[in-house]
Amino acid sequence: MPERDDPVTIGRRVQRLRVERGLTQKQVAEPAYTPAYISTLEAGRVRPSDDALRHLCDRLGVGFEELATGRPARLVTDLRLRLTGAQRTLATGEAEAAAGQYTRLLAEAEELDLGEERAAALLGLGECAVETGELEEARQYFERAEKACGDVPLPARVPALRGRALSHYLAGELRYSVYLLESTIDELNRGGLHDPDALLLLYASVIAPYMDMGAHARAAQAAELALALAPRAGDPALVAHMHRSVARTLLAEGRVAEADASLAKAAELYRQLQIRTELANCHWMRGYVYAQNGELARAEDELRQALTMLSAKRAALYSSQVAVELADVLHRRGRSEEAAALLQDVLSDLSSERGALHSAAAHRLLGIIAEDARDTEAAEEHYVRALSLLERAGAAGDLADLCRLLGDLLRRTGRVEAALDAYRTGLGHRTAPGTTTLGPAPAQPPL
């Protein structure tokens, strides 16, 4: 919150409000203060304490912020109402429209010097940029949001921290993403800050980078913890809409404090709605486990549920990895044409700068499908493309596996020396120090 105005400005404001209401200095002063104190305050010769300002607010019928800063409380509440509107727009999949709303709201928050609202607008802009695939822009917004939060408790800073980690992950910087998420989880749990929503967001977000680094056991543990922490709200979107409608009615009636309370509930529910989308990662993880155990029908059900929660319009980068896993299950169930069509859809939304890991996974599986169809030329082309993408991202475990596939293909087509080179490259990635060693797992919350 910005600093209050200087004593002279506050004194003049108190005098103006008192005169407008037809009150004497004695009426404003009693019972806690004297008329002489009010006279001195109105002259700007004393800096009022918080207790004195609260007393004056009660006597004059205004909010603390309006008396201390001159900003009508209704103005700030109206800004918060429009922030929840932008959250709703983003939650329903209109990222570009939401970005326009957040940009206008950020300008207003900066003009009014509202730190909390400025941070919320920056966070929203970061989330919009992730949705549209502008990852560098997203990271910058998240960094600015984190700075705008100031010294607020860690749970309040978690959405910005998580956003920063997510932007690094989607750009292929796996280890740094895991470092950010794990260190935040550790700080929350070891510091006794067991905020369920914050932990849920962090555990759900760390699953994908764990998987890409080959830390499958840790990914499974994070998925189970996230599901255990999941909120039990029925439909947060409907409840949030109700709170926004109530807030608008209360604001029209001049009941600003009650409107603020409803808006706070709406904002949290929209945040939960985005967290529920993150829970798709947990269904994806379950589908992966079922697929590894050969339970392909159950794996397909879980992965399709994840894709339903992550519609391509809302989160193309998130849904693409789930789609690749689903395509693998379909291929293993003998439905290779359906799998290939799904993979081609994934590739149409991605590039080397935007979803490199997901592109590589799609090319790898398309190579396997081409090999099954005895189209070795197409298979080799897909493997080479995947290899180039993985080398850029530094996904060592996947690189080793891909080198094995490419080596086997080259050996079967009589190119033994080239096959040996591919195997040696794969062994180098498999034994590279520190590629999958993440250190101790983060502390667990008391569930």
Automatic annotation (TrEMBL):
- Record's protein name: Regulatory protein
Question: What organism is listed for this UniProt entry?
Answer: Streptomyces lincolnensis
Q: Which GO terms describe its molecular function?
A: DNA binding
- Which Pfam families does the record match to this protein? HTH_3 (PF01381), TPR_12 (PF13424), TPR_16 (PF13432), TPR_8 (PF13181)
CDD domains named in the record: HTH_XRE
* Annotated SMART domains: HTH_XRE, TPR
Q: Where is the composition biased (Low complexity)?
A: 431-441
Span list, region Disordered: 427-447
